[in-house]
Amino acid sequence: MSDALDFAALRERLAGLGGQAYWQGLDDLAQTPQAKALFEAEFPGVAPLLDRRRFLQLMAASLAMAGLAACGRTPEEAVARVEQPEQMVPGKALWYASAIAFCGYAQPVLGKTLAGRPIKLEGNPEHPLSGGTCDAFTQAAILQLYDPDRSQAPRFKGRETAWANVQTRLVEMASALDANAGRGFHIACGASSSPTLARQLGELRQRWPQITLYQAEPFADDARIEASRQAFGRALIPRLHLEQAQVIVSLDDDLLGPGPLQTLHQRGWASRRRAAASGQGSALLYVAQSVPSLTGAAATERLRIAPSRIVDLALALARGLNQAPGGDSRLDSAQQAWVAQAVNALKAHPGHGLISAGSHAPIDVHAAVARLNQSLNSQAVEYQAPVLLGYADDDRWLTLGELAQSLAAGNVECLMFLDCNPLYTAPAEWALLERMQHVPLRLHAGLYYDESAAQCHWHLPLNHPLDGWSDARSSDGSACIVQPLIEPMYATRTLHQLIGLLLTGNETNALNEVLDSWKQLDAAHWNQALSQGWIGTAAPTVSVPTAQAVNLQLQADSDDLEVVVKPDACVWDGRFANLGWLQELPKPISKLTWSNVVGVSPALAERMGLSNGDALQIELPGQSIKGAAWVEPGQADQVVALYVGYGRSRAGHVGNGLGYWVRPQAPGSSSAVTVQKVDGQFALASTQTHHRLAPNDTPPILSVPRRAATVPVPVKEAPATLYPSTVDSPALFRPVKGSGPQWGMVIDLDLCTGCNACVVACQAENNIAVVGAEQVANGRAMHWLRIDHYYQGDIEAPRSKFQPLPCMHCEQAPCETGCPVNATVHGSDGLNQMVYNRCIGTRTCASYCPYKVRRFNWFDWSADAAPSIQAQRNPQVTVRGRGVMEKCTYCIQRISAARIDSRIAAGQGGEDHQESTFEVVTACQQTCPSQAIQFGDINAPASAVSQARQSPRHYTLLEELNTRPRTTYLAQIDDRGSDLDRELEHGQ
After folding, report:
1. Of 345, 368, 387, which residue sits at a domain end?
2. Each residue of 574-615: pLDDT tens digit?
3. In a domain, 82, yes or no
4. How far is residue 576's CA from residue 582's CA, in Å, rounded to a whole number?
5. Nearest Cα to 318, choosing from 333, 331, 304, 332?
6. For residues 646 and 598, is the Cβ–Cβ distance under 8 A?
7. Is 880 exposed, middle or buried (0-12, 13-18, 19+ CB in 10 A)?
8. I need a labelling partner for 893 at 20 to 30 A (CA). Which of 15, 171, 334, 687 fits?
9. How far is CA 423 from CA 157, 417, 575, 805, in A?
10. Same domain (yes/no): 417, 290
């Protein structure tokens, strides 16, 4: 076991550093042996010198292995196509509009296909909610399409069978249901907004009126919708317009964090921040939360508080806004100060305030929030009918808890799971596995042969959204057509085909099933819908009556530990557990990969003598868990955080056996938890302290000098600048006049939320390899774009800052002078380019790079990839082999394609003509929900990137090194007032 961290020493060390100190994790701050080893590996100059014996050993091994360099690949023959497929031009991509459903809500996308293979997804720029952007989950959906572990054929009792046998069994089942009007037939369905599924389920209920439907989504909006029934007398869902909210108060609601509405909320938040930066109102965010999140990281003021105290906080807000009578308060001074400032800000911005509570908050809190938003006359909140199926007042589905009761009563004769995995995600208290064993017929339909499928008699494999027809609605109610980009890869069926088979007894066509739901569209309008990807059928907003008065009661004081069970930031509820891109994606706050952990606060860790990786035994109602401790600065003291999505046994080869299995808690269940430290240590792979920018004094802190005040009131800070002075000297690289565009990138740190969408987009675009947990722990992750996370302040309640780091493309690049074989060179357009077949793997360039953005292929990561995974790779980007250095290229393949298109458009040919300016959008820029990245020609005065470089917030990273990077930044605006009480950062 590792030694416990000395938290008193950490606090003393931070106290001597001042308020402008940044640090990267508690191990880094404490200089543990593991942190020192990473530090010395990153900067060998500060490590102990190599002794003579070890030097001779390494030299002998190098000479022995030198002959391997002469080994080449076996020649392979290529056979040209004899017949050219229709519409297919070699090297020319085709784009198709479609949608990916996440938690039931459609994420509109454009799918890029090359040679008939889908290889990349982008947000649909014509859709009003996405605006051409998307989140990390949507980006990774393309990898799921090619997942070799997807279910490929029907199964009966675990053995593969033919669809003809399925058809025979469903016909028999339908006949039995006809005899009793469907009594005893129970269907549990994952969240869906599909109009076609709604129509088909209506037909099922018309034929068999006594069937019962259940919601099977583990993290849904049940509390919000039930609160609307309580407040307004009908089922409604709030539609939040963050772009109109000058003041946002979040009660443990991660608005900017992972989820089906992340893209929409980030776009709205970024729009509001841009307006505020230009002097148009404010963009203040007050966050009270138990566990650090992306919303908390973006907060103007953040308050740590246990979930049970959210009720007290909501009551205090209601009293401050004159919506509840005065009375006793159980809030401490820090909490009262936070409430006072939030109330004052809301009153100072009438009509532009917004209050939101997390989906796990009690129903009474959501009802109170509805009343408070009405009292604010908020323009940022509207209400609409629920988009998801099963929530309307006239079509209300039951919960899995009620299914458990029916199972216990023996009322279930046939149980069908549609696109859900409740035996993995349902609360343990409901004991679904034990209670369903006596059901005579159990069926499961899903993408994978998962934990629920293994307990069913029949498993029916479903199409992926990209190889089957369907439809779905976005959060605003607009319908998106789910159009396949490729023929079904396996013997699968769509959900609509399965229900059609049950209804008719015959195989049905998936497209015809969808067309039957859109008979009102003629051929021209249908083709238009397919072309643009969506139909303008947004749900109308609803006028609501005055909400009921706030009815909240103070909570009893308690010193007991509370548990918070949250979906994982990278694999959600486990549905993405088999996607290597997401497993290796560093979680936004902790930067952990390939596992979940038990999050504890520094105070709790100090009390229990914990360090990162220590084994903990957790006891919950119906669950006993053993997991790794992770000390999370900024977490509420009495809170233990558990993350769903791991501990899978049937996720696939990638996702099996990682982390611990925890299930969400049943509504209304106790949040009490017992935590005990036990023997054992877990190896965790976190990138939080990888790729430091420079070696400095112990502990390695990045100090941040304040820049000259060029914007009134806000304070601008430039993260990761080591020295305040600026050194200037003549540039070695001078662009040739008339040489064409000069490319550059500007990243606005005031808009970046650290959501990781750009990281996954870069991986999908550039064939970046997945290396596994062991190699990540060794510092060998291959991401070309990383997002550094810095803490600022004390360890109990620090502030978080994010900084994306692609290649800087320096005009005076040290890596170019260090390479002995000229494998990294400078292009005439300002790009720092890699010549892969020239690289011999000395890694000199990486040691010369002060930004630590180069990645070395220690092994041939792609050699053993499944054939289906290889089909996803972008043929316009070289797949790198062992011993080759790689890095961000500014998506040079996109630049080349745009250059060719501009020549064709201009009617020019040859290589020596004068190029005109043309636009290029990089993968990271295209997907960023907040549009924090600008890329273009820095020589074009009208370009967005040139205008951004004229901002008074513009700065260069490590500018004192005079490398003249083409990638630069806009400093983050600190919008805290100078008179804010510092005790806000010490809330309990």
Report:
1. 387
2. 999 999 999 999 999 999 999 999 999 999 999 999 999 999
3. no
4. 7
5. 331
6. no
7. buried
8. 687
9. 17, 10, 13, 41
10. no
